[in-house]
Amino acid sequence: MLGDLLRRLLWVPPLALLASLLVFSLISPDTSATSAAFRHLPRFFNGAPEDTVALSTRAVASLRERDDPEAAALLARLGGAAFPVVLPALEGLSPAGRRRVALALRPVASRMKLALPPGELEQDALWWRRFWEDRSLDFQAPTVRRLARRYATSPSEARRLELRMLDTAALPELFAVLGTEGLPPPVELSSALVPVIQEVLGRPAVPVEQLPQEILALRAFWFAHQLEFSTLDGAGRASALLLETQYGKWVQRTLMQRASRAPRATGVVTSPLWMLARRGPWTLARVLLGLGLGLAVAWALERARRPWLHTAAVGGALGGAPAVLALAPPSEGSALGLIVLVAGAGWVTLRGDARESELHRPFFRVARAWGGAGVKRRPWGESWRGVVLLQGQVVAAALLGEWRWRLPGLGVPLVRALQEQDATLLMTLVVANLGVLQVASVLFELGAQAGGPRGERR
Questions:
Q1: How many structural domains comprise the chain?
Q2: Same domain as 129, residue 174
Q3: Mind listing the pLDDT tens digit for each residue in 313-359?
Q4: Which of 59, 103, 135, 218 is the most buried (most CB within 10 A)?
Q5: Do both 176 and 63 map to the same domain?
Q6: What's residue 265's pLDDT?
Q7: Ranges 69-78, 112-121, 300-309, 414-423, most confident
Q8: Same-domain status, 127 and 177
Q9: What is the CA radius of gyration of the chain?
């Protein structure tokens, strides 16, 4: 039995993964607000993840041939992160191609507050080539890391100017210091880093009291677009095939955001896991208590041995549940009563089906063929197989009651997520419930095996 338990439990993670893929494809449409930041990504598999090198190479190749506003806007957006690809490539371009690239780099020069020489665009291209000859070493990863950490340790205007000369090439190291999850850094460090990042991204400055919310917004931007300003290596390129997708972003955001303390500091809830940990115990307690009371009522009816009483109880529960939902006042008792009615009616129905079908099972026929002296029937064990379905009904009743009477739990957030098409919260709740159902099905199946009918050979 222990081996069977372990074998069944090992199937829980892959089944939960498969279910999450299916549910994600159904409840995460491209037009939802949740996936808007990742709309440029494929759904499940990214066959060609594009980092800074790939994006800048594609933009330069397009501007080499013709005027392309989208390629020019992409170069302006990539900024200093694209310099290691764009500036050395100026030598190999035609005069018209150099002029187009130089024109695309003018917004970058304005952002870096560089004074380009007046005159033709050919002079701009020459100036950029000389800039790269003088500062190419500054754009290497060790140098960028050293400048960013030195500024974070001891901020000064001179060190801020050094980071400004790097433009977007400094973003990976700046966000590494700022952090991508958890509580914001101290106010002194945030006040030094956030203005530099805002200047590079063209975001307006905010007061000090709004820094926590601004940090959350910057982290959300970086989570969605960090690949545009980074370079993939071998292992990173392999993982990006799955992680740089809408599904991969959802998994990362759900598992990596540790916001258990951040909402108290910022007033903003950023992780559905925090919502699940905070409200889930209320729903679980109601489900367990209501299921236990419902099974106790069903057991009492079973002991009475009155078939008409079973029918009356099921009919009363089917009629009483809508009445309770519509007329009962907001209270814990109302929610618990709704769950007990659903659990009791479902269990009585399952018991009746189990008694009718049990005598037709193959092992009864085999036992009689072998000359069994007696067959000890345990219809309670047979009924455990249907408890998984009953559990789903009880969970639905608990969520419905919590939403109807605005009780603490997962009911209200679930309905709000359905209305707002919040795929992140919906996926978290669905996968968590599926995981619980899978584990419960294993335990109930083992209970059914332990409590099933046994034959004795004569």
A1: 3
A2: no
A3: 666 666 677 877 787 888 888 888 888 888 777 766 666 554 545 44
A4: 59
A5: no
A6: 43
A7: 69-78
A8: no
A9: 32
Residues 305 and 442 in one domain: yes
Considering the domain boundaries, does residue 35 fall inside one? no
Point out the domain boundary residue: 107, 138, 169. 138
Residue 133 and residue 165 in one domain = no
Residues in contact with 158: Cβ distance below 8 Å, sequence separation at least 6, in sequence order: none
3-state SS string for the chain: CHHHHHHHHHCHHHHHHHHHHHHHHHHCCCCCCCCHHHCCCCCCCCCCCCCHHHHHHHHHHHHHHCCCHHHHHHHHHHHHHHHHHHHHHHHHCCHHHHHHHHHHHHHHHHHCCCCCCCCCHHHHHHHHHHHHHHHHHHHCHHHHHHHHHHHHHCCCHHHHHHHHHHHHHHHHHHHHHHCCCCCCCCHHHHHHHHHHHHHHHCCCCCCHHHHHHHHHHHHHHHHHHHHHHCCCCHHHHHHHHHHCCHHHHHHHHHHHCCCCCHHHHHCCCCCHHHHHHHHHHHHHHHHHHHHHHHHHHHHHHHHHCCHHHHHHHHHHHHHHHHHHHHHCCCCHHHHHHHHHHHHHHHHHHHHHHHHHHHCCCHHHHHHHHCCEEEEECCHHHHHHHHHHHHHHHHHHHHHHHHHHHCCCCCHHHHHHHHHHCCHHHHHHHHHHHHHHHHHHHHHHHHHHHHCCCEEEEC
Q: Within this chain, do residues 216 and 157 fall inside the same structural domain, yes or no? A: yes
- What 173-177 contacts at long range (C-beta under 8 Å, 24+ apart), as own/partner pairs, is 173/144, 173/145, 173/147, 173/148, 173/149, 174/148, 175/218, 175/219, 175/222, 175/226, 176/148, 177/148, 177/149, 177/152
Q: State both tokens at 272.
A: 């559905």
Share of the chain above pLDDT 70, in %: 73
